[in-house]
Amino acid sequence: MGSSLWTLCLILASLASAAISATPRRPVAVPFGRNYVPTWAFDHIKYFNGGSDIQLLLDKYTGTGFQSKGSYLFGHFSMDIKMVPDDSAGTVTAFYLSSQNSEHDEIDFEFLGNRTGQPYILQTNVFTGGKGDREQRIFLWFDPTKAFHRYSVLWNLYQIVFFVDNIPIRVFKNSKDLGVKFPFDQPMKIYNSLWNADDWATRGGLEKTNWSKAPFLASYKGFHIDGCEASVNAKFCNTQGKRWWDQPEFRDLDAAQWRRLRWVRRKYTIYNYCNDRQRFPQRAPECSRNRD
């Protein structure tokens, strides 16, 4: 090979390497067995494919759940979930992050079951400093019981973004300058659970769980973590500003993401606390910044 051609190949290889390193790294699939622990009712958890897939079981006696072994201060977290099929009224399948103290921070995906043929409702919520009451609810644009779909959270110092199959469905911006607390100094664990909540989950509790349909099964796989692991007492991330999800381009949604979010709000949103004047006569200050 001639020297000029060899030089060109080196340049192209260098450019390709730079392009790869500049691209946000896909979160790495984490084996369940090494990085999570059951939280209760261990006999209600089933394992498949060498422990890479998990099925949670709910019956009239108990539900169950699992949590990450590690705690994380910022990052990108996702889970592939297939919801309880058929008559799931009264059940809640959850994927969320939560800190460990009384004034806890929490980032919630809650999937509210329904009668056969009626759509699931996805409820999201954000707790900061122990305060929640920031519910938003949407219908999904697909049947979440037929196949696995990916549900993700991006959490950095500037925003929290909820994604469904990489489509943003909600953003919660850091509005500390407006007097709104934002989770920035309390590491969180990742939790997943299946439980009975027929006192509120379906039509405000009017539809009760039909236990003749039990056991109810929800399936999980593809546990992805790309976060700053820290002790539960850590107040800062020691890799601040160095991870892909912490770069300037992830401080806000891009134009295409804002368009997709507006599409979700226009076509699928059925409740937004920002627009509930009965519960909140004075609109929450963060709502304007989140473009709600």
Automatic annotation (TrEMBL):
EC category name: transferase
Pfam family name, one: XET_C
Record localization: Secreted, Cell wall; Secreted, Extracellular space, Apoplast
One GO CC term on file: apoplast
Recorded superkingdom: Eukaryota
GO BP terms in the entry: cell wall biogenesis; cell wall organization; xyloglucan metabolic process
EC number: 2.4.1.207
Record domain GH16: where: 16-220
General function of this protein: Catalyzes xyloglucan endohydrolysis (XEH) and/or endotransglycosylation (XET). Cleaves and religates xyloglucan polymers, an essential constituent of the primary cell wall, and thereby participates in cell wall construction of growing tissues.
Family: Belongs to the glycosyl hydrolase 16 family.
Descriptive protein name: Xyloglucan endotransglucosylase/hydrolase
UniProt organism field: Lotus japonicus (Lotus corniculatus var. japonicus)
Higher taxonomy: Eukaryota, Viridiplantae, Streptophyta, Embryophyta, Tracheophyta
